[in-house]
């Protein structure tokens, strides 16, 4: 009985016990589905966010006030740094205009209710003040309308560009362009609508955002003084490290940081954010792999138990095969092949369901395209074969050691 005949016999045995085979394969498929599904979801989310960083450009960095809070550490009160003022931000913009495309923005409010007539939104809309480069640097595309004009930016006109969720809520089934909205005690004319970028990792993304001219934002009364953020995008051949060094020197001069004193601002590179994302997803993948492994461990125990039952049920059959000349190796090989075939059948179904589940989760949470995890599909199949070998070996060993005479007497 050669390898091909062993394989055929394994398939005949599987076909003869179809219900048991389906239930056994289902146990394996659930384990593989959990493993591949979790890892696919993580990879899909990572792929989606990585594409967002890529579209924003790797050669960019953000500058904002250094935050250390007001807590006390070791008996020492943390230093409170002054916010970046509009004058300082514009000084930096003028000095850096030959080296990078600079945008200045300020966070006006993050708990705002937007009204239009007798309709209003939930009080969780964000209002941002931005200059002429803000949309471009943040990679916000307009679905309709236009960006701010130079006159609107200089004079602080009451105009606004709104997100999709706000537009759908206030102006259902009609264009918001040219309509008026009310917020923060003022009336604004809508001149554009931002193209939706999805909800991000559980947030509203740009769908819950209102962008107004920077000068307009400074005219709105606020209990707290505004702090300004700066984003620099390198559009020429200058290296990121070179421009970062220039930017640090210019900001230290503008902020009047003394020699030997720490920077009173923070610079965040876009690639450092992406690196942090890679670290986080690395931990998630490790956790997901452990969860999937534990599920597969339970599945392998179930498979071994079913194979042991199969050996007991087929004791007489094993005795007949040995009486006809089957060797110990052939009997052992037959049961191992049978276990591997069941695992592979369950693994194929589990991989298919896992890919669908993982992509469904990643699309629901993020905004990624359909992602095919070839690596994890391959790993899943290797694990299936390994589980088949491990789970099938002991039952196969036990079957091969059965005494043929005693087996023939078994009823």
From TrEMBL:
Its main location: membrane. Pfam families: FtsX (PF02687), MacB_PCD (PF12704). It is found in: Cell membrane. It is a multi-pass membrane protein. Residues 290-404 form the ABC3 transporter permease C-terminal domain. The chain crosses the membrane at residues 21-42, 289-312, 339-365, 371-394. Residues 21-231 form the MacB-like periplasmic core domain. InterPro entries: ABC3_permease_C, MacB_PCD, Macrolide_Exporter_MacB. Coiled coil: none annotated. Keywords: Cell membrane, Membrane, Transmembrane, Transmembrane helix. Belongs to the ABC-4 integral membrane protein family. This is ABC transporter permease. It comes from Rufibacter roseus.
């Amino acid at each position: 009985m050669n390898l091909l005949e062993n394989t055929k016999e394994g398939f005949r045995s599987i076909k003869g016990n179809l219900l048991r085979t389906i239930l056994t394969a289902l146990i394996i498929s659930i384990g593989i589905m959990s493993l591949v599904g979790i890892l696919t979801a993580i990879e899909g989310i990572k792929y989606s966010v990585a594409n967002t960083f890529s579209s924003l450009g790797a050669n960019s960095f953000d500058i904002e006030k250094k935050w250390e809070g007001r807590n006390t550490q070791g008996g020492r009160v943390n230093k409170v740094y002054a916010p970046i003022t509009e004058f300082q931000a514009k000084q930096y913009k003028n000095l850096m205009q030959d080296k990078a495309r600079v945008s200045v923005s300020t966070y006006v409010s993050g708990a705002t209710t937007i009204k239009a007539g007798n309709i209003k939104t939930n009080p969780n809309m964000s209002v941002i003040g931005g200059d002429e480069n803000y949309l471009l640097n943040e990679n916000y595309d307009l679905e309709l309308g236009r960006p701010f004009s130079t006159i609107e930016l200089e004079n602080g006109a009451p105009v606004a560009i709104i997100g999709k969720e706000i537009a759908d809520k206030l102006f259902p089934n009609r264009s918001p362009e040219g309509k008026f909205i009310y917020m923060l005690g003022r009336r604004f004319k809508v001149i554009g609508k931002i193209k939706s970028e999805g909800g991000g990792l559980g947030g509203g993304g740009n769908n819950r955002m209102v962008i107004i001219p920077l000068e307009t934002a400074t005219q709105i009364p606020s209990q707290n003084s505004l702090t300004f953020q700066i984003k620099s995008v390198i559009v020429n051949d200058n290296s990121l490290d070179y421009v970062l060094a220039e930017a640090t020197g210019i900001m230290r001069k503008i902020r009047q940081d003394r020699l030997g004193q720490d920077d009173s601002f923070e610079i965040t590179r876009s690639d450092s954010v992406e690196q942090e994302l890679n670290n986080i997803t690395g931990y998630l993948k490790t956790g997901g792999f452990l969860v999937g492994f534990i599920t597969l461990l339970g599945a392998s125990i179930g498979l071994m138990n079913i194979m042991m039952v199969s050996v007991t049920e087929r004791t007489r059959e094993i005795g007949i095969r040995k009486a006809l000349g089957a060797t110990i190796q052939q009997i052992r090989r037959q049961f191992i092949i049978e276990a591997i075939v069941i695992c592979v059948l369950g693994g194929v179904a589990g991989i298919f369901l896992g890919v669908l589940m993982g992509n469904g989760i990643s699309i629901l949470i993020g905004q990624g395209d359909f992602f095919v995890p070839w690596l994890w599909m391959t790993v899943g199949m290797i694990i299936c074969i390994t589980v088949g070998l491990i789970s099938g070996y002991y039952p196969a060993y036990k079957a091969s050691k059965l005494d043929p005479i005693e087996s023939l007497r078994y009823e």
